[in-house]
Amino acid sequence: MVLFPSSTNFNIKISSFCVLVLSVACTLYPVFSSKSCDFPAIFNFGDSNSDTGGLASLFGQPATPYGETYFHKPAGRFSDGRLKIDFIAKSLGLPYISAYLDSLGTNFTQGANFATAASTIRLPPIILPHLPAGYSPVYLSVQYAQFQQFLSRSQAVRQRGGVYANLMPKRESFRKALYTFDIGQNDLGVGFFGNKTIEEVNASIPDIVNSFSTNFKNIYNLGARSFWIHNTGPIGCLPYILAKFPLALRDRSGCAKRYNEVSQYFNHKLKEAVVQLRMDLPLAAITYVDVYSVKYSLFSNPNKYGFEKPLVACCGNGGKYNYTVDVMTCGGRLPNATLVGSCGRVSVRVNWDGIHYTEAANNFIFNQISTGAFSDTSLPLSMACIKTKNSTKNHN
Ligand SMILES: *[C@@H]1O[C@H](CO)[C@@H](O)[C@H](O)[C@H]1NC(C)=O
Ligand SMILES: *[C@@H]1O[C@H](CO)[C@@H](O)[C@H](O)[C@H]1NC(C)=O
Ligand SMILES: *[C@@H]1O[C@H](CO)[C@@H](O)[C@H](O)[C@H]1NC(C)=O
Ligand SMILES: *[C@@H]1O[C@H](CO)[C@@H](O)[C@H](O)[C@H]1NC(C)=O
Ligand SMILES: *[C@@H]1O[C@H](CO)[C@@H](O)[C@H](O)[C@H]1NC(C)=O
User: Fold this and answer.
1) Helix, coil or strand: residue 141
2) Whose CA is nearest to atom 4 of ligand 4?
3) pLDDT tens digits for 326-361?
4) What percent of the chain shows pLDDT beyond 90?
């Protein structure tokens, strides 16, 4: 992929990710009832949907107007403002979590974020800064390795005392913390942008999800107990897919139908994996969150929720989707030096730069999912430490 010659150096392609849930016969019910969990920390794993500065620490900040809405400057996030993980932290009374890779004066007492934009679950075929279409070197197994280091080394650092004791989590925080996951979209992107057929990408999903489970178990084996997993969103509703595949069949919302079906199959397998993980990991409390359905409602019914033009990027350089094939122009410069800036009405827009959601959309999604209404367990975020049992009872 290419950017305008005089644009910022942030000319990488970032594929997104997300998923759907089929209603299955296996539902869950709480074993214990009702009390907030009091999570002392959050540890997050993922891609740009939840990266709060990891890729920026490696390769540099995205350029203005990224961050314009809340931080009023680029803030390591691929959005105009905050992400779902920020709203999660805020609602739990925790500070916004910093990227593990942010080496400058960072306070990890209440969590660390291992996500980087452009991360995949499996080893990616092309690594940034290689172009076009390079992915983050920090794929999920590396995120796990970094977490493992963080767990042991943070305790050694704490023991130095003084200021160090107040920069790292307590040992017990690791057991009591909330572990959040939002990853998989880029594994689908690897296929779609690597000239694979829809069937080929679809067929790769069981292996992608197996790799997710392996990493998940590794994290559990280090003592993690409370988990909150976002499924993948409707990738076929994002401009980077719509602009790249203009002839792909559209559904009634204008989304690329079969691309979304691949997201849905990913989510189906992910949900199956969660059922298996609950059996294999008896001490884990695992909440599976159907972010796909909430995101899709923004495309099928934008006006109902106060949004407009959900298929069109707010920050781009024209075209049907305000997105240039294979190029994230947002924050770059045109050949005549004009900045590719914001549409100005970002608070009613869903898509920010062709791949990523706006703060307004992220806030909406958070409000929907935090109640438990889209969770497989029905537990709200604040109670995600409560273990549930698989039930054979059919809910519907
Ligand atoms: C780090 O943050 C925690 C609260 O999250 C605070 O108690 C602690 O004092 C901070 N550490 C430093 C060195 O400021
Ligand atoms: C996909 O195919 C196009 C056209 O044949 C080619 O230019 C491009 O390099 C291919 N991309 C990948 C990732 O193989
Ligand atoms: C993906 O594979 C599953 C299992 O074979 C199949 O049920 C589903 O229809 C496939 N989806 C697509 C979009 O090819
Ligand atoms: C630069 O180019 C863009 C797109 O071609 C155009 O809309 C804009 O008016 C131009 N700006 C200047 C200062 O010429
Ligand atoms: C496309 O992006 C440009 C540059 O940010 C913005 O001015 C324009 O309003 C956007 N178009 C739409 C339809 O949002």
Assistant:
1) helix
2) 334
3) 888 999 998 888 999 999 899 999 999 999 999 999
4) 83
Beta strand 388-390 with 28-30: parallel, antiparallel or unpaired?
Answer: antiparallel
Give which of 327, 321, 328 is closest to 353, Cα–Cα. Answer: 328
**Which residue type is seen at 290?**
D
Residues 6+ apart with CB under 8 A from 230: 18, 46, 49, 50, 84, 180, 181, 182, 289, 291, 369
107 in contact with ligand 1, CB cutoff 6 A: yes
Q: pTM for the whole thing?
A: 0.90
Q: For residues 129 and 278, give the distance between their C-alpha atoms in angstroms, rounded to a whole number.
A: 38
Residue whose CA is closest, atom 12 of ligand 2? Answer: 194
Closest to 169 in 3D by CA, of 184, 158, 183: 158
Count of domains forming the chain:
1
CATH of the domain at 331: 3.40.50.1110
**Catalytic hit among 356, 370, 375, 376:** 356
In a domain, 387, yes or no: no
Distance between CA 301 and CA 164 in Å, rounded? Answer: 50
